């Protein structure tokens, strides 16, 4: 409780939003890149994520989650909203519209990945890429990733194990990232 008697979660943050945003911008972008598999969409969703986070910064409670986990939760909600809107748009379009996005970037998931690894990542589901992004790329602890995904620790660990096994089966032993 603060001196005025209001809950601590409404007290001013110890760190500024700007410093938290600067620290985690690349993490959120990487997460969205793996989740969406599309660099342009990831950039758009990253901007929207930070706009939402800025509006809700006063509600952030560092006792409940790290800033990175909180930002990734907002990013996930933003991406899911985007996917829902895209699904509605696609349903309104004619039956001749292709359902798969066209990948115009050679390095959709980041600089320096082999084409074979890029292809293998594209073949994974969004959920599989998402758990890899959270646990492997962003190194978010299992508890935070599970909370963000809305699943148990065990389910998170199992999902990661299965995603990595599928990825390994696609690329084999001779591919280097």
Features:
0% strand; mainly alpha; globular; Butyryl-CoA Dehydrogenase, subunit A, domain 3; 177 residues
Question: Helix and strand layout, with pairings?
Answer:
Layout: H1 17-36, H2 39-56, H3 67-92, H4 115-123, H5 126-137, H6 142-149, H7 153-171
How would you concisely characterize the structure shown here?
The chain has helices at 17-36, 39-56, 67-92, 115-123, 126-137, 142-149, 153-171. The protein is mainly alpha-helical. The chain has one domain (15-171): Butyryl-CoA Dehydrogenase, subunit A, domain 3, CATH 1.20.140.
Structure write-up:
The protein has 177 residues and is mainly α. It has one domain (15-171): Up-down Bundle (Butyryl-CoA Dehydrogenase, subunit A, domain 3). It is 63% helix and 0% strand. The chain is built from seven helices and no strands.
Rg for CA atoms:
18 Å
Overall mean pLDDT stands at 81
Share in helix: 55-70%
Order of SSEs: HHHHHHH
Give the CATH class.
Mainly Alpha
* Continuous helix count: 7
Shape: globular
> Would you report the number of β strands?
0
Structural class of the helix and strand makeup? mainly alpha
User: In what range is the share of β-strand residues?
Assistant: under 5%
The CATH topology: Butyryl-CoA Dehydrogenase, subunit A, domain 3
Q: What is the CATH architecture descriptor?
A: Up-down Bundle
Largest sheet: none
Stretches where pLDDT is under 50 for at least 5 consecutive residues are 1-12, 94-100
- Domain unit count: 1
Q: What is the straight-line distance between the termini?
A: 49 Å
